[in-house]
Amino acid sequence: MSARPRVAAAVLAAASAIATSVTAVSVLVPTSAHAAVTGSVDDGSLTWGLSTYLSSATFGRPNPLPAAYVAPATFAETERLTGFGAGDGVVAPDGSADLAFSGTSVNFAKTSGAWLRLADLQVDLDPSGNGTVSAVVSYGQSVTGTAPDLTYDPAQAPQRGPERVEVVTLAGNSASDATITSDSAAWAGLDGAWSPAFQAFLAGDPTGTPAVPAFVYAGQVNANADRTPLPFDVAVRTEAPVVTATVTGTSVADGVSVDVAGTGFRAATRPGDMGVYVGIAESGGLPDVTRLDQSAFAASDWVMPQQIVDGAFTRTLVAPLDRLDPATAYSVYTWQAHAHSNTSQDTETPIELDLDDPVRASTTTAAGAPRKAFGRTSTITATVTADAGATTSGTVTLTGVGAAQTAPVVDGVATFTVPARLPVGTYAATLTYAGGPSLRPSAATRALVVTRAATRSVVTVTRKPTAGVRGKAGRARVVVTGPATVARPAGPVTVRLTKPGGRTRTVTAGLRGGVATVVLPRLGRGRWTAVASSAGNGSFVASKQTARFAVTVG
């Protein structure tokens, strides 16, 4: 059997084994059209004969050294095939794939001590099966033992590497080389050529500091036509993400609630991935999420990596009704977080939303006195009505006139008390109906003016002043009151003392708790009039009162 048929036969057997490990009835049937459902790779293998030169058992060549392979890499002695395992990555719906396989192969020539390691292969395929195969490459030359029976030392530092290098450029393949089902994918006989980067890597770096010697057999790897790379065969098992979405409730107060359950998801497909997002948006395709912009979603949530257990997660999305259009169809979407590095976690699951019935419109009307004085309470009411005679229930919130208040709707009306201490000024009282199980929200605004409070001043001469050489000063007590619901007025009071035909005297004092004690000076004998005035302030208007008293000789 020639090398190429031998490789293809062995890897098709591996592909069949992987497929049947998923389900006993899954059969790899060649097809020119890829299955629409693909997804994350959770197992798989890559089988490769390297080249006729590198896979030979000829003395003096760098032959495979299976005893030095690092698992899960394996070597089939009879077929001279190297296998890499623990497949990972993603297969896209168009048949393209980003795949990774673990393990390390070792080629060693005991005559010269030269060794070559290829580790952790990565395969990037376009829909036609063309692309690249890269590996972490290193090489060196053993000095353990005596030629021609030198010994490979895995602990020896390499002369060059380890470094990820494109090893083979895949070309000349077609979609017919692929067999893709709902739970597996395989590519048979992918052809390619040694990449210039790989050949340059093996050539060393003579101009470096220090200079890096070439791989001993660098000139032999691609010296003849039979030393070109042999075909690759890849077989992987895939698991497509599946989502179920159930609408659990629709109300104006709470919006639309959707329970979402996902299986077959991956927290990370590429480095930097951080779980998945789930969101509700218009049906017809995932909106643009490459810029982390989720404004197109009525609701969304992040499922963190630790919240995806064995590929499964659950979430409840709540979309406010004002983010939904009754004339629009909606779906639940998933995609890889955060930067949407790949499409393997993309799903679209349509949901049925009934946004017209039983939800109806409501109207809120505000009523109440347009003016009130500081220190006095007043009432504002909100009357809620609904289309088609629907029963109004729920709550109304009053804002804009002091601390927010919420009151229940009773018989279509919610009643609020405007606080007595609301400062003087002009206000816009906003009454917002939150909606009910069958009603949409509504709101109304009413202007309210708070004016200064009236006051009452009372002056009492508690000790009359006297006249003459022995005359003494007197006292007066001024009390200024306002509404009982607020603190008594503060500020200055003035007492103006007058006597017919005599001069006028003025004294002042400050109110404390609405009371001021005023010292009256010695006055001339006769009948005097005392006029006490409070100046008022931003909350109270001014007021005054008159008292009359007689002054005698002391």
How would you describe the overall organization of this protein?
A hairpin with a 2-residue loop joins strand 9 and strand 10. Strands 1, 2, 3, 4, 5, 6, 7, 8, 11, 12, 13, 14 and 15 form a 13-stranded antiparallel β-sheet that branches. The chain has a five-stranded mixed β-sheet with strand order 24-30-29-26-27, with no helix packed on it. The protein has helices at residues 3-22, 196-202, 218-221, and strands at 40-48, 63-64, 74-76, 81-91, 97-102, 104-108, 114-125, 131-141, 144-146, 149-151, 160-170, 178-180, 184-190, 192-194, 232-239, 242-251, 255-263, 276-282, 299-303, 313-319, 330-336, 347-351, 362-368, 371-373, 378-386, 395-399, 405-408, 413-418, 425-433, 442-451, 456-463, 474-481, 491-498, 505-511, 515-520, 526-534, 543-551. The protein is built from three helices and 37 strands. The termini are far apart. It has four domains: 3-238, no CATH class; 241-351, Immunoglobulin-like; 362-451, Immunoglobulins (Immunoglobulin-like); 456-551, Macroglobulin (MG2) domain (Immunoglobulin-like). The model is unreliable at 1-37 (pLDDT under 50). The chain is elongated.
